[in-house]
Structure formats: C-alpha cells, structure tokens
Amino acid sequence: MDFGFSLSPSSAIDLDKVDLSLYRRLEQTVPDIRSCIACGSCSATCMAADYSGMSVRKLILNLQRGADVKKMLSCCMLCGKCTMVCPRGINTRKLILDVCRYYSDNKL
Amino acid sequence: MIYQGKQKIWSDYQKEIPDNHWFYVRSCIRQSFFPASEGHFVKIVRDLLGKDLYETPHHTTCGGIAYHSDTIPQETAMTIVARQFSLMKEAGYKNLVTSCITSFGNYTEILETWREFPELETRIREHLWKACRREFDKPEYVAHASDVVYKLRNEIAEKAKFRLVNHETGEPLRIVEHIGCHYSKMFPHKGVGGAEYPCVLSGMVESWGGKVIDYPERRHCCGFGFRQYLVKANRGYSVSNTHKKFESMEPFHPDLIITNCPGCPYFLDRWQYVISEQTGKTYGQNGHGIPALTYEELAGLVLGYDPWDLGLQIHQVGPEPLLDKMGIAYDPARKYLGLDEKDIMKPGLPTVLKCY
Description:
The complex is a heterodimer. By secondary structure, chain A is mainly α. Chain A is built from seven helices and no strands. Chain A has helices spanning 21-29, 41-45, 49-52, 56-64, 70-73, 81-85, 92-105. The N and C termini of chain A lie far apart (40 Å). By secondary structure, chain B is of the alpha/beta class. A four-stranded parallel sheet of chain B has the order 2-1-3-4. A four-stranded parallel sheet of chain B has the order 6-5-7-8, sandwiched between helices. The radius of gyration of chain B is 21 Å and the shape is globular.
C-alpha cells in the first residue's frame, strides 16, 4: 500500500555484527589509537579537512564502528601535521599508512 | 555509592504533588484519539476517589500545537494560557492539571519564561486585559494528569478488580512504559524521576502488578514531533522513529504499551498498522500488534470498567489479546456500539496486522 511516505533506512550500528578486524589489527600495530580522546586537534589542523571532509578523529571513530574509510583516506596528503598536534602523541601518520596497507594487502 | 547517598539523589528527582483541589484542562486532540480517556479520568478521580476536580466548558486550546508548528508566536500562546489562568482564578483554584503533555510542557515553559523575563509577563497581562478584560494569577502548582494518577495509584490498586497479571499463569504482564518528551525532557525537575529516570508510569505499573521492561530505546521519541508528522512528505521520519522503538522492544515480548502523551499512544498504535503494511512485520503474538493504551484506559481496565466504554475499540491494534490475558470479560457484539448503543460501524480489516 502506498502511504505517500516510507521508512527511512536505519543508521543504527550493531557492534556485535560489524567487522572490527581492521581496528583490532591497528590496536596491535599502533596501540596508541586506544588513547585517542577525540579532541579534534588533528581535524582542526588538517589542510585537506575544509575541502574534502578528511578528519583523523572521524577516521578513528569510523574504524571503531567498523565503517569503510577508503574515501576519506584518499584525501590525505600525508603531511603529518595531525601527528605534530596530537596531545596524546598518537602516530596518526603511521595509523593512516597502516590502514592503507591493510586495504592493499586485502585487495580492498 | 552508599545507600544514603543514593536516597538523597533520588529524593532530588521527586516532586510534591498536591492530593486534592485541581483545575482540570482537557486536551485538543485526545478526545478524538481516545474519546473516553479524559472522561474516565474525571470519573475515577472525582466520582470514584471523591477528590475535588473542577473543569469549565469555557477553556480553550493552550495553543501548543500551533506554537510547536510555528504558526503562532510564543506571545500569542502566552496570552491564550493567561486566559486559562484567569478562568482558574475565577473558579478559585490554584493547582492546574493538564490532560495533555504538550500543554504541560507549554504551561511550564511559559511560567519559566515569565520567571526569567518578568517584563514579558507584564506585557501579556496587558494583552489579556486589552483582548478580553481579564486578569489572572499564576498557578501555585502545575501537574500533568498522569502525576495525579501516579499520586493516587495505591488508592486505585486498593479498589482494583483486575491486576496486570496473566490470570492463567500468574506471571506479571510485561509492560513497556513510554513517557511523552514534553513531560520531563524540557524541564527535568518538573517530572517525577526527572528526564533520566521518569517513574510516573512505571510506578503505576508496579502498583497494579505489572513488570516494566527496560529496553535500549526506552527513552527515544515516539516519532510524533509535530513538524515531522504534520507535513505528509515528512511522515517517513515519524514512522522510522516508531519502527526503531518497536525493533528495540521486540526481543522483550511486551504484552502492552502504556503512555502519558496524546501523540505517543496514537503513533505507537497506528504506525503498527503502517509498518505491517510496508514491511509485513507485526510485533505482538500470533500476527497481532502490541496494544498501546493511555494510563487512564489502563486504570479503567484495572478498576473493572467495560473495555468498550473505555473506547478501546477505537485503537488500531485490537485490545482482545490483552483482555484475555488479564481475564477481563468482554462482549464482542458490543464492540462497535457507541455509548447510546448506536452502531459506530466496523472498520475494514488490515491485510497483515491481525485484528478480531
């Protein structure tokens, strides 16, 4: 029956069902990822952020939720400013390179 | 945390509710959605429990729907509300009881605004005087009708003929309680239990023998939200909210939903039909839906009023599975007879949602 409106797809994420293998691997290779406090300093200093939506804070959040981050990564220029400003000293540059390596290893 | 500390924090979440002498204002929409609810509230409180509850035919809408739909400015809503206060002053009452959650939120918001901006109250006094030569006193206390039933829940339990228990198994019924957003999400200290732990409905359920279900989306909005419902093209947002709640409560197999807002029981009831037609899914047992009742209807059932006099036939989801569980006798032949025994006509049956 057509009511003239329909259900919107749910944006809920079931953490019991998503694939967290990438995040688990990063916890091994870049253990500092667990100390991120989501302050957003990385995003504030990112040169690509204003034009492309690149944000390391968002990247980590998406990794924790098992979401795809390929499109966001393609905008990173690897300048390393996010690493310099991180108050928790997370090696964000290595984090980004590791994620790229994961996608490359798995031919994703 | 030590026990005394917990008790102290919990006491901050309580509110004193006067136990008598109320000026009752009805809702604009509840009498068409649940035609017998307000009448039975008056019957229970005034006639059965002998309390002083006064209502006047001269009161009007509080302007809440128009205000939340952006069709009138708040000053207009304030002047309408000021007129209700003047009616209360004329009748000699100081405790205002509203039937509608939006009205409760509207009255509370206006009183809080006047407290912050007294010059606005002065201006509204002038507007009211110019418009209809009336003067008003602010109420000493504003309660929602569910606060009153919560206050009287034990007196109702003493007079109860049925309990919220499966009469065959003796198990308490599993009940979802849904609090209207405007009850305590706007001003947490105005609701029993605040915004985080509102217990106005769970208190009733527990007093009457039921078991309250705690599920992940318990405090999520029902989906009414005025602007997302009033425009047809936006109703997808509304039904999606309700769908999210039903998906969340489904694993807990609720027998019943109880609410204290005009919009919530309407949408939690009617959207079950829409969801069943759109997705083929139903949430009750054996293809039925989950009955969504108002607290007055539930109090009426517990007190032994006839389900058809309570207007349960107006609901989209049939109440019969619930009545069977509670062991309440009903006459199927009387279902679609009005109070004057006139045929109110049987509606067409949905294709998916099972109804009697």
